[in-house]
Design brief:
Layout (H helix, E strand, L loop, with lengths): L3 H11 L13 E3 L4 E4 L4 E3 L6 E2 L11 H12 L4 H10 L4 E5 L5 H8 L5 E6 L2 H10 L4 E4 L12 E7 L5 H7 E12 L5 H7 L11 H10 L1 E13 L5 H7 L1 H4 L11 E12 L2
Parallel strand pairs: 4-7, 5-6, 5-8, 6-7, 8-9
Antiparallel strand pairs: 1-2, 2-3, 9-11, 10-11
Bound molecules: S-adenosylmethionine and zinc ion.
Zinc ion binds next to loops.
Length: 275
């Protein structure tokens, strides 16, 4: 059986034309050794765990291993299945990019619903990408900053941006003509059972995405917005994971007093095109 690194090298060589050097934006070559070298001789290495580190300087992410493990468990429990199904339906084309992909489950599950898809995930947090490469070796996982992304212009048919910060200039640069950006933002009822118990009567109890929607509409054409809302049962064993998976949970003081038997996903799916 091929090692994770060997699978990643093959995959990267096959899809080499998507990538550029994040330092000088020149073309790169993926060598058999696993080195990715640009025409200016900047070099990046495919790690043994099967991902590529494209960071040009180390950054301290606020997201640690525990957060991604918690997200993985919650996503595996099926809480986001309906969202992933809808995202797979809304996607267009073959080349998919997930920006701020975290531990990779959304992209992996969307990819499974789109046979033939060639999927790339990028996240600034190495811990997220390590988890993604561990669980989903067939996809291409990059540690990188959206502000300096290692992708050639006009490379992707669909860009996902799920519950993560965006960089619209970069999205426009790497989107193919006719390509689509799909951004998922929390809506007012997102995880409301958790917020009601944790932050009763404080402003954190409600959530507004108005500014994000306005900016998205200014940045893209043919913008469509659809709301997806559902409530699913939750086992008490998953409550600590829910508290761990979002920065909101970190600020809750009496964590062991939180009792939940259901949880609501309420999100807005914004999609837009270049023209
Ligand atoms: C709340 S998490 C969401 C992760 C994943 N999309 C999910 O829904 O499980 C936000 C993610 O955005 C990533 N992120 C933040 N700034 C970034 C940047 N400049 N470039 C790439 N990723 C970034 C974080 O590291 C984090 O994994
Ligand atoms: Zn270079």
């Amino acid at each position: 059986m091929l090692s994770k690194r060997a699978v990643c090298i093959q995959n990267m060589q096959y899809n080499q034309s998507i990538f550029i050097c994040p330092i000088c934006a020149r073309q790169v070559q993926v060598e058999d050794s696993g080195a990715i070298v640009c025409t200016n001789n900047h070099s990046f290495d495919i790690a043994k765990q099967g991902y590529i580190n494209f960071m040009t300087r180390p950054v301290q992410s606020m997201y640690a291993k525990e957060l991604f493990e918690a997200r993985h468990e919650i996503i595996s429990s099926g809480l986001y299945d309906a969202l992933q199904t809808r995202l797979a339906e809304l996607a267009v084309g073959v080349h998919l990019l997930d920006t701020g992909c975290g531990e990779g489950s959304h992209l992996a599950r969307i990819t499974a619903k789109r046979p033939g898809a060639i999927s790339v995930g990028i996240d600034i947090a190495k811990e997220g990408i390590l988890a993604a490469a561990k669980f989903y070796p067939g996809l291409m996982w990059c540690v990188g900053d959206l502000a300096k992304s290692p992708y050639k212009k006009e490379s992707f048919d669909t860009i996902f941006n799920i519950l993560s910060p965006a960089n619209y200039e970069e999205f426009k640069r790497v989107l193919k003509p006719g390509g689509k950006v799909i951004k998922v933002v929390p809506h007012e009822g997102y995880l409301k059972e958790l917020r009601q118990q944790a932050f009763a009567h404080s402003e954190k109890e409600s959530y507004s995405n108005e500014e994000t929607v306005v900016r998205f509409k200014e940045s893209f054409k043919q913008v469509k917005a659809e709301r997806l809302t559902y409530t699913l049962p939750l086992t008490q064993a998953l409550v600590p994971k829910l508290l761990e998976m979002t920065p909101m949970g970190w600020h809750i003081e009496r964590k062991n007093e939180i009792m939940l038997n259901e949880i609501t996903v309420d999100v807005l799916l914004l999609s837009g095109m270049m023209e």
